[in-house]
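Question: I have long wanted to understand how a fold can be written as tokens. Here is the record:
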Amino acid sequence: MKKVLSAMVASGLVLAGTSCFAADGMYVKGILEYVMPADPSIDLLNTDTDNGFGWGGAFGYTIDQFRVEGAITTQKTDIDAVGIRGDKTAIGIGSGDIRMTTYMINGYWDIPFQNGFGMYLNAGLGYGTATVSIQQIDGDDGGFAWQGGLGFFYNINEQMAVDLGWKYVSMDDADLDVSVSDLYTNNIYTAFRYSF
């Protein structure tokens, strides 16, 4: 009898844990990002880009294990020109920054584990704007942007959840005023969601 009761209690705990998932409906989300950019080639310059930070917000809707949201995020990284393309000598030419803002429609597939924990896969399409400023070189424009990634979530209760994830963000096809290639970043981010 004790074994049966123990099994029932254990099963109840598991079921109670797996039932703690965000409720269907609308949510808002705040986002903080640690940005790890590629070193883009700008005109004829070789560059060295520092890691930076980003932030943003989203408004979305949850249906079962799926989420759809509209998100706006912006990020800034510092950049140094360290030489002429094809020249192996690293010389200091100038410094500046790259700012990128994206307007995305994102989709998420939540895969629940236990006790409120789970993981997700996500992908997004949208529009981005980028501004490159380094010495006398300035370029800004917009174009197609996309992202993809994965992460983990924890549902604190039916209203509140936190995310920790990675995403690849690309604007490599942006038509800037200057010739830029490899305009993409790998971002580690955390987010807080509130459902209502």
